[in-house]
Write a structure and sequence with these properties.
about 475 residues; mainly alpha; Hypothetical protein af1432; 2 domains; two-stranded antiparallel ribbon; 25 helices; about 60% helix; binds fe (ii) ion
């Protein structure tokens, strides 16, 4: 079944080292979380540097520093799970809404309404705008609390899935609580909020203001919200290094991953073995798949199909493991595409499709930051390439499309065709196979399709349409309770 090139490549490993520093992987993937939140690239890493400097002033224990380090990098793990709801509520771009919300005092009704007015239905009429604002205002603080709860609880659960400490999960859960008891989601007050959560809350706000408005604004914000949003002793710790020019200019470094590696407590350096890399891929696949009810379980299903195809080629267990990982992570760049586009009930316009087409490049750039993932990044970045060179994002020809990429592409297209889209029904297996067959040699590799068919003939693969419909139903009923 294999030609000689594919046969040689079927034994390539996509992840080079069996033992990688965990912080390197997490730092790199944190950029995907920045994209989801609409923050500039590196937001989580800079927040981590700020928070770890505060921790050193407060002389936190080594164990607390280690827990804080990962809480700061992964504080936005749950951020994709409320993106669809936010885009629907505002009728706008969830990235823009989430980012701008971090620049206002949302506990002030006046600022909240102004933010709503500026961000609701930006392309609609004033009547559309008013309708959206009225819905949000009618939901009141309860709906804000619910959005925060979804995000914080989901983030804490994924942190636990990564086998991070309880202290890390708790800090993520407490991220948006305020010292004065007016934060979200649980209205915790003062020292009832975990110290690590208090540090994360301040560090993320300082970073957002720093990147958007500069250091003086960030310090002014921290002072104004001292003893309101933020623990006074944590703000005071921040102020001890306000004049450290080297520290603040260092946050503009192009090597934030390298800088961060110096802050992970040396006694507690975590490494990711084979199982650890698998867990990271599984966790981030959940983050990606939670972005839209329409993509529910897409990445995990592509992984199952891609491994099925790879197995027909006689790939080794190690290679199948890497195929599964890359399939789980292939759409990580989709976190950079707004739900306004992903969940649109009609076909995307050319302009919107241009936005969607950026996602494999985002996947490539995010994964490429991990040295041991350079081949994994190539394959993930190539999953929308076509043999005739008319794919994206590079538009390369067949001779530059590797075996693993061809396997992934066929699995991805087959999975997407057999799932529902907002603007079309799901196809059955036969229909999807016949579409793929019509594209042999131009878009896809015929050997990979034959392997898929061979696998399908002996596998009882259930459609995910039912699961998709359940996810859409959950999404719709959560909107109707507002
Ligand atoms: Fe994709
Ligand atoms: Fe995909």
């Amino acid at each position: 079944m294999l030609d000689s090139v594919c046969a040689a490549q079927s034994e390539y490993r996509l992840v080079r080292s069996p033992s990688i520093r965990f912080s390197e992987i997490i730092s790199a993937l944190s950029v995907a979380l920045d994209l989801t939140q609409g923050h500039p690239q590196g937001h989580s890493m800079r927040s981590c540097l700020i928070g770890m400097r505060i921790a050193s002033v407060l002389s936190l224990s080594v164990a607390d520093c280690s827990a804080l380090f990962y809480a700061l990098l992964l504080k936005d793990l749950g951020c994709s799970s409320n993106a669809a709801k936010i885009a629907y509520l505002f009728g706008g771009d969830d990235h823009q809404i989430k980012h701008s919300a971090r620049l206002i005092d949302w506990t002030s009704p006046r600022q909240c309404i102004k933010h709503c007015w500026e961000n609701c239905a930006p392309d609609g009429s004033n009547i559309d705008k008013l309708a959206k604002v009225a819905t949000i205002v009618a939901g009141g603080p309860k709906s804000g609390r619910e959005l925060s709860e979804i995000r914080c609880e989901r983030g804490a659960a994924i942190a636990k899935m990564l086998r991070l400490s309880d202290a890390t999960a708790e800090a993520i859960r407490d991220l948006d609580e305020h010292w004065n008891g007016k934060g979200n989601p649980n209205r915790k007050k003062g020292e009832n909020i975990s110290l690590l959560g208090r540090i994360c809350g301040l560090a993320q706000s300082v970073e957002v203001f720093l990147s958007e408005k500069g250091l003086p604004s960030a310090l002014k914000m921290a002072n104004e919200r001292r003893a309101k949003w933020f623990d006074p002793q944590v703000v005071d710790a921040l102020l001890t290094f306000q004049s450290d020019v080297d520290f603040w200019s260092g946050l503009r470094s192009n090597d934030l991953i390298g800088k961060l590696s110096l802050w992970e407590p040396p006694d507690e350096i975590l490494t990711a073995d084979e199982e650890g890399v698998d867990r990271v891929a599984e966790a981030f696949a959940q983050v990606v798949d939670a972005k839209s009810p329409w993509t529910f379980q897409h990445s995990t299903r592509v992984a199952e199909i891609a491994v099925g195809i790879g197995a027909q080629f006689g790939c080794s267990e190690a290679m199948l493991r890497d195929i599964r990982r890359v399939a789980l992570l292939h759409d990580i760049g989709k976190l950079g595409v707004s739900n306004k586009i992903l969940d649109k009930p009609s076909k995307p316009t050319d302009e919107e499709f241009a936005q969607i087409k950026k996602h494999p490049e985002y996947s490539y750039k995010i994964l490429k930051q991990v040295q041991a993932f350079d081949q994994l990044a190539e394959v993930a970045g190539g999953h929308h390439e076509r043999l005739d060179g008319r794919g994206y994002f590079r538009g390369v020809l067949a001779d530059q499309i590797s075996f693993s990429t061809r396997v992934l592409t066929v699995a991805d297209i087959f999975e997407a065709l057999t799932a529902k889209r907002p603007y079309r029904d799901a196809m059955d297996c036969e229909q999807a196979q016949s579409i793929l067959k019509g594209d042999i040699g131009r878009g896809i590799d015929g050997n990979c399709l034959a392997a898929l068919q061979q696998w399908l003939a002996k596998t009882n693969i259930n459609s995910r349409v039912e699961l998709q419909l359940d996810a859409i139903e959950r999404h719709s009923s959560s909107l109707s309770t507002l």
